[in-house]
Amino acid sequence: MASPLIGRHKSEIDTPALIIDLDAMERNIRRMADYFADRPAKLRPHTKTHKCPIVAHKQIAAGARGITCAKLGEAEVMASSGIKDILIANQIIGKEKIARLAALARHADVIVAVDDPANARDLSDAARVFGSEIGVVVEVDVGMGRCGTRTTGQTVSLARLLDSLEGLRFRGLMGYEGHCVFIQDRKDQVEKCHLANSMLVEAAEDVRRAGIEVEIVSGGGTGTYDITGSYPGVTEVEAGSYVFMDTRYLGVIGGFEPALTVLATVISRPGKDVVITDAGMKTVTQEFGLPALKGVQGAELVKLSEEHGQIQLTGEAANLKPGDKVEFIPSHGCTTINLHDAYFAIRGDRLEAVWEIAARGKIR
Ligand SMILES: Cc1ncc(COP(=O)(O)O)c(C=O)c1O
Asked: Is residue 96 located within the same domain as residue 52?
């Protein structure tokens, strides 16, 4: 997006603003790409985190095999930016959405998760109407208790049906071990994650034994990328948050850097030990806890209301006054990003680009 501020100092950006530290983001992308460079499993980054085509293209340029989306609307945005290989790791239900999906499949290799035979038939009918081919994977519940088949019998019979229906191309299985990604104790995490991985890989073997080719076995998130990514039989990992990180993930895995902040301005100092910012919960989410304040000693964000953040001061931070700028590191990047129209992408301390968050709010 055009901006008269390109090349100017970060402090000149009007607030609240969502900031990318480009060097840190690029190191995160490179680090994850390096991990998968020589492995049988490949990366299929989840774009529900950044919701921004140029970031997805950077991940693909670094080696990702394709992308993952949560919603059809996100997939439409990514496809219109030229991305071809798109997994929608979710069920697409309902006439209108299925028609959109079948139409999109004429322009990209879309793969969608299925866990219900009636939905499989609806997808096939729509693909025939549009003359397209929709890629499909069976979603297997690997212990998270969300969507997915729950028994081997269900998985194999759904795979058989998908493999037989006109207009569909059966690609394999997906199963997301979301109940493992935030486990702090590494031994416990590896144990639980391996159990989930084994459920998925064994389900793939069951489908193969039924004479059906399984090409994709997809799972994994940022918190489990190296466990799931090295589990024999898994072919791809759907990690998303690693690109920016957030305080919740920073507390669980090492090696990746915070690359996303919210820039805010102090708008009031109503008392000696408190300042108020112009960024509140309409700017930064708090379902995983309050954001962290970056680089200010002796100051703590203690409360968010809709449009205000309250910072408690001690020591050096006592100098903060109206007009000063502070940065928050979100506790949950994915939902914070969804509140913003654009990223202000910074290199060093200069604004290098403004990127539209084109898939923001694409919840349909
Ligand atoms: C289906 C699916 N795959 C992968 C992920 C991993 O994303 P992240 O790396 O942000 O944890 C998620 C997160 O919600 C998901 O729902």
From this structure: yes
Domain boundary residue, one of 246, 266, 294:
246
The whole-number pLDDT of residue 317 equals 73
Domain that holds residue 331: 10-17+255-356
How many Cα atoms are found within 13 Å in the side-chain-facing hemisphere of 297?
A: 2
Q: Locate the ligand 1 atom nearest the alpha carbon of residue 181 and give its number.
A: 11
- 282 in the same domain as 164: no
> Which structure tokens are listed for 149?
């088949």
214-273 pLDDT per residue, tens: 999 999 999 999 999 999 999 999 999 999 999 999 999 999 999 999 999 999 999 999
Q: Would 2 be classed as within a structural domain?
A: no
Give the pLDDT confidence score for residue 1 in this predicted structure: 87
Q: Give residue 239 CA to ligand 1 midpoint distance, Å.
A: 6
158 found inside a domain: yes
- Of 1, 48, 57, whose CA–CA distance to 29 is shortest? 57
SS3 234: coil
- To test the ligand 1 pocket, which listed residue (32, 43, 140, 176) has its Cβ within 8 A of the most ligand atoms? 176
